[in-house]
Design goal:
There is one protein chain. The chain is mostly beta strands. It is built from one helix and ten strands. The relative contact order is 0.19.
């Protein structure tokens, strides 16, 4: 038995030396993505915004080290009232697992109108999206820094909103 072990060790060492450097591969970095759109009408639980129409478009991807992507949000006002929100931005963090993704980003252009206040530029403010990809029954939720939500990178919340239309797909 000792002789077998003694022979196996030099053979294993030779096999490692004979392997080209390019043949040894590092483990693959995780590949996450969140892509698609969702729209619907806000339910009663949204208080003053109940009945408003919202639309989200998100195109984000990450290899685990670098994240890139964009988002677009539109929140229509009540009939005869101004648009509540219309803004776009860049995704800066994305994580995903088991059909759930959390993406955070920064608004690069846009405005919101809350109540009777004049439209406010929200450029530079952070946002967060959480999506649960359930095929045709997706759920999602969001947080806005401009409404006082403290947002850290890749911080999400429970996806409670059920859009009436959704093509959001989570990979990761």
């Amino acid at each position: 038995m000792k002789r077998t072990i003694a022979l196996a060790t030099p053979i294993a060492a030779l096999a490692l030396l004979a392997t080209p450097a390019g043949a040894v591969t590092a483990p693959e970095a995780p590949a996450y993505s969140l892509r698609g759109s969702a729209s619907g009408t806000l339910p009663e639980s949204f208080g003053q915004w109940a009945g408003d129409k919202v639309r989200f478009t998100i195109d984000a991807r990450s290899d685990g080290a670098r994240t890139r992507g964009t988002f677009d949000v539109f929140h229509a006002g009540k009939p005869g009232k101004p648009t509540v929100g219309d803004f776009q931005g860049k995704i800066s963090c994305l994580v995903a697992a088991d059909g759930i993704a959390v993406a955070t980003g920064v608004i690069t252009k846009g405005h919101v109108t809350i109540g009777d206040k004049p439209a406010m530029d929200v450029s530079g403010k952070k946002v967060s999206f959480t999506v649960h990809d359930k095929g045709r029954r997706d759920t999602m939720f969001w947080m806005w820094e401009f409404l006082g939500a403290p947002i850290n990178d890749c911080q999400g919340t429970v996806p409670l909103f059920k859009p009436s239309k959704s093509s959001l797909k989570v990979k990761g």
